[in-house]
Design goal:
binds 5-O-phosphono-beta-D-ribofuranosylamine; about 20% strand; GART; Rossmann fold; purine biosynthesis; EC 2.1.2.2; 6 helices; alpha/beta; phosphoribosylglycinamide formyltransferase activity; GART_AS
Length: about 190
């Protein structure tokens, strides 16, 4: 299964996916990393694994449709089947959604539908929940709204954001790779 990983930041989920592939736990190949932040740490990580990177600066394009079309052309060249979002901080537009219909997956650091959008961990701590978690879901036109593929709960460490974050990231790395493996092997049934 040929995949593209989209990321805007550190890329620890990208690295966990690539590591799972190398460890034989995920039957896939990351053909390319796509980023809207040419200086993001994920670019360095991709280089360490000799994986191609397509980076773009959104404001250099007239519209979202324009940069998404360029992304599509690049993904077609690399014969990519699935788009895996891993900390990609832009809403996917109709251009990409229709080109990769039901082939775009995201990971979000909360138990959706609670705490969608930015800083889900901060939102959860602010609300005072005792349990939060991680969700892997299909991407639709909304913000963190698509059909849910898998979830895992994580206990909040009272008043300690960075410890909570560390727990969430560890669970993300495990849940994303195991969910993708099931998805690519057709082992997940959706309710909707
Ligand atoms: C993760 O928490 C992911 O759930 C969210 O963005 C973060 C990306 O982290 N969508 P990283 O760049 O993979 O380290």
């Amino acid at each position: 299964t040929k995949i593209a990983v989209f990321a805007s930041g550190s890329g620890s989920n990208f690295q966990a996916i690539q590591q799972a592939i190398e460890d034989g736990k995920l039957d896939a190949r990351i053909e390319i990393v796509v980023t809207d932040k040419p200086d993001a740490y994920v670019v360095k990580r991709a280089g360490n694994f000799n994986i191609a990177v397509f980076s773009f600066v959104a404001k250099q394009y007239a519209s979202k449709a324009d940069y998404e079309q360029e992304i599509i052309d690049t993904l077609k060249e690399h014969e990519v089947d699935w788009i895996i979002l891993a900390g990609y901080m832009r809403l996917i537009g109709s251009t990409l959604l229709s080109a990769f219909s039901n082939r775009i997956v995201n990971i979000h650091p909360s138990l959706l539908p609670s705490f969608p959008g930015k800083d889900a961990i901060g939102q959860a701590m602010e609300h005072g929940v005792k349990v939060t978690g991680v969700t892997v879901h299909f991407v639709d036109e909304g913000m963190d709204t698509g059909p849910i593929l898998s979830q895992a709960a994580v206990e909040v460490v009272d008043g300690d954001r960075s410890a909570t974050e560390a727990r969430i990231h560890a669970v993300e790395h495990e849940l994303y790779t195991s969910t993708l493996q099931k998805l690519f092997k057709n082992e997940i049934k959706l309710v909707h």
